[in-house]
UniProtKB/TrEMBL annotation:
Annotated AAA+ ATPase domain residues: 46-196
GO cellular component: cytoplasm
Any single biological process term in GO: cellular response to heat
Compositional bias of kind Gly residues: 366-376
InterPro entries: AAA+_ATPase (IPR003593), ATPase_AAA_core (IPR003959), ClpA_ClpB (IPR050130), P-loop_NTPase (IPR027417)
Organism annotation: Trypanosoma cruzi
Protein name per UniProt: AAA+ ATPase domain-containing protein
Gene Ontology MF: a single term: ATP binding
Alphabetical UniProt keywords: ATP-binding, Coiled coil, Membrane, Nucleotide-binding, Transmembrane, Transmembrane helix
Length: 539
C-alpha cells in the first residue's frame, strides 16, 4: 500500500509520496513529474506515450503501476479492479486475429474488444503494453499509430462506429531493447560521475530510437513522447529494496504472533544474490526459512547466513533453547543483548538490566558490544532507536546484530589497518601517476626542442653546402673540399656535436627535399666530391 495516494491530496503531494516508495530510476521520476505537473501549459490533445526500455526485472511494470497511482490517486491494489490501469501482455496478442481482438470482439461474439471496452469505462486510464517490441508491424501501422497521434483514436477496422478517443490516455510501452548493452556496462555506469551517467543514458536512448526506427519506422518514433532507459541499481538501492520486501514479509509474520528478525549479514548476502528486482527473489530465500521456523515451533527466530566451504548458506536459528540440539541465537556472545535492544520500546533506555562487562563483550574505545548499564548503555540504545520503534522494526541494524567477541575485535582492528594501508598505497599511487604525467610532459617538451634544433642544423648544413659549392667555382674544388673537412671536424671534435644530432638534421633535410630531391642532392654531392678528390690526387 502506498501512503497518501488518496485522490483527496494534490497531484504534487501524490508525486512526492509515491516516488519516495519507488527505489531507483530517479531520472525517470523527475522527467515524468515535470511532464504531468506542467501538462496543462499546452493543450496538446494528444495521449502521453512513454517507452521504458532496459533489462528485465528492473521495475518497468512496477513504475507503470506507481505512475497510475499518482495520476488517479488510487492504491496499488485497487488499480486494475477500478479499471484505471489496463495491463496488456502483447506476446499474448502476436497474431493478426488476436491483436485486433483488443478492439473488436472475437468471431461469433458481440460487443467490443478488451482494450476498447476498458477505455470506454475509463477514458483516462493508464495502458501498459508489456514487451511492445514483440508486437506485429501490421498492428503498429493499423492500430497503434492512430491511437498514439494527436487527437488519437482507437478504432475498429470492421465497424467505423466502434472507436474511442485516446487523448486522455497514458500509454506506457515496456520493452527489453538495449538490455545487453546496459548490463554489459553496469560497472562503468556505477563508477561514472553524474554527468557521465547522463551521457550514457542519452547514448542508450539513441540506441533504442534507432532500433525502433528500423523495426517500427519513423511515424511510430515521432509519436513517442519519452524514451527512458532503466539503468543499473547501486548497492545501496539494492539494500533498500531488500529492506522494503523483508519488512513487508516479516511484519506479516509479526501479525501472526511470530517474531522473526534478519541480520545485516543476510541483507548483504541477499544484495549479492539479487539480480532482478522481483519480490519473488527475496521470498524464495525467506519462505523455506519461515516454513522451517513454523514447523519446529519457533515463535522467535533469527534469519542469518553462515559461511561454508561450499559458499554462503541462509539459515534460521531459534532465539531460545528448544532442547532439540539446535544452536540458538541467544547462545552466541552478545546476541541476547542485541535481541533485547531490538525489542526495547522507544525511549525506554533503562528498561534492560545491566549486564556484566566481559572481555569478550568489549569493543575498542571502552564501549560494550553487548551493551551495559550507565550512560554508555543509554547513549548506545538511544542511537540505535533514533529512527524507529524496535517493536515494529523486524530487521536488525548493523550496530546491534553482530555480537562483539575478541576475535571480532581483532578482525575489526585488522580491517581498519588494512584500510589505512590501502589508503596510503592509493595516495602513493596517485602521487606516482602525477609524477609520471609531469615526466611525460617534460619528455615531450625536450623532444620538441631537439626537433627544432635539428631543423636549425639542417638549415645550417644546407647553407654551408651552397656556400662551398659556390666557392668551388671561385677558388677551386680542392680548397673547398679541405674547407668542408675542416668544418665537419670542427663540428664533431671542437663543438662536440653528437653524430646522432647530425643524422637527425640529415633526416630533416631529407624530409624537406623529398625522395627525388634527396637523390639529386646526393648525386650532385657525389659528383662534386669525386671531382675534388681527383683534383687533389693530380695536384
Amino acid at each position: 500500500m502506498v501512503p497518501h495516494a488518496s485522490s483527496k491530496t494534490s497531484l504534487e503531494e501524490r508525486w512526492e509520496a509515491v516516488s519516495s516508495h519507488y527505489i531507483g530510476q530517479q531520472h525517470v521520476w523527475a522527467a515524468l513529474k515535470t511532464h504531468f505537473l506542467s501538462s496543462d501549459v499546452f493543450n496538446a490533445e494528444k495521449p502521453t506515450v512513454i517507452v521504458l526500455f532496459g533489462p528485465s526485472g528492473f521495475g518497468k511494470s512496477e513504475l507503470a503501476r506507481r505512475l497510475a497511482c499518482v495520476i488517479h490517486g488510487i492504491e496499488v491494489g485497487e488499480l486494475e479492479t477500478s479499471g484505471k490501469l489496463v495491463y496488456i501482455h502483447l506476446p499474448s496478442f502476436c497474431t493478426r486475429d488476436t491483436i485486433y481482438s483488443l478492439v473488436d470482439p472475437p468471431a461469433a461474439h458481440v460487443g467490443e474488444g478488451v482494450l476498447l471496452s476498458a477505455l470506454r469505462r475509463n477514458d483516462d486510464a493508464v495502458v501498459v503494453l508489456d514487451e511492445f517490441e514483440k508486437g506485429t508491424a501490421d498492428a503498429i501501422q493499423n492500430l497503434w499509430l492512430s491511437a498514439f497521434q494527436k487527437k488519437g483514436t482507437l478504432r475498429s477496422l470492421k465497424e467505423a462506429s466502434r472507436s474511442i478517443s485516446t487523448e486522455k490516455v497514458t500509454f506506457v510501452l515496456t520493452c527489453n531493447i538495449a538490455a545487453d548493452t546496459i548490463l554489459h556496462r553496469t560497472k562503468e555506469y556505477l563508477r561514472a560521475t553524474a554527468e557521465e551517467q547522463a551521457a550514457m543514458r542519452k547514448e542508450w536512448t539513441e540506441v533504442c530510437r534507432d532500433v525502433c526506427r528500423k523495426t517500427m519506422h519513423d511515424p511510430f518514433v515521432n509519436r513517442v513522447d519519452y524514451f527512458f532507459p532503466f539503468v543499473p541499481y547501486t548497492e545501496e538501492e539494492k539494500r533498500r529494496f531488500i529492506h522494503l520486501q523483508l519488512r513487508r514479509v516479516l511484519l506479516d509474520q509479526r501479525a501472526k504472533d511470530r517474531r522473526i528478525y534478519v541480520t545485516p549479514r543476510m541483507v548483504k548476502a541477499l544484495a549479492r544474490k539479487l539480480q532482478t528486482f522481483h519480490a519473488s527473489t527475496i521470498e524464495c530465500v525467506v519462505r523455506p526459512l519461515l516454513v522451517e521456523a513454523v514447523q519446529k515451533g519457533w515463535d522467535t527466530a533469527v534469519l542469518t547466513v553462515v559461511e561454508l566451504v561450499s559458499g554462503t548458506e541462509f539459515v534460521a536459528l531459534p532465539a531460545v533453547d528448544k532442547s532439540d540440539g539446535v544452536t540458538t541465537w541467544n547462545s552466541l556472545p552478545g546476541a541476547k543483548r542485541a535481541l533485547e535492544v531490538c525489542e526495547l520500546p522507544y525511549g525506554a533506555t533503562g528498561a534492560l538490566p545491566p549486564v556484566e562487562k566481559r572481555r569478550t563483550d568489549m569493543v575498542p574505545g571502552g564501549n560494550s558490544g553487548g551493551g551495559g548499564g550507565g550512560e554508555g548503555s543509554k547513549s548506545n540504545i538511544g542511537s540505535l532507536r533514533a529512527t524507529a520503534d524496535r517493536a515494529t522494526q523486524p530487521i536488525f541494524r548493523e550496530s546491534n546484530v553482530v555480537p562483539d567477541t575478541r576475535v571480532g575485535v581483532d578482525r575489526k582492528y585488522a580491517l581498519r589497518l588494512e584500510t589505512a594501508v590501502e589508503k596510503e598505497l592509493q595516495l602513493e599511487l596517485n602521487r606516482m601517476k602525477e609524477l609520471l604525467v609531469m615526466k611525460e610532459k617534460e619528455i615531450a617538451y625536450l623532444k620538441e626542442k631537439v626537433f627544432q634544433l635539428e631543423k636549425l642544423l639542417a638549415f645550417f648544413l644546407a647553407t654551408t653546402l651552397m656556400c662551398l659549392l659556390f666557392l668551388s667555382f671561385l677558388v677551386g674544388m680542392k680548397i673547398v673540399f679541405v674547407m668542408g673537412l675542416v668544418i665537419f671536424m670542427g663540428l664533431w671534435l671542437l663543438v662536440e656535436m653528437p653524430l646522432q644530432l647530425l643524422m637527425g638534421a640529415i633526416r630533416v633535410f631529407y624530409g624537406v627535399l623529398g625522395p627525388v630531391g634527396s637523390v639529386i642532392a646526393v648525386l650532385v654531392a657525389s659528383l662534386w666530391g669525386s671531382q675534388a678528390l681527383r683534383h687533389a690526387v693530380v695536384c
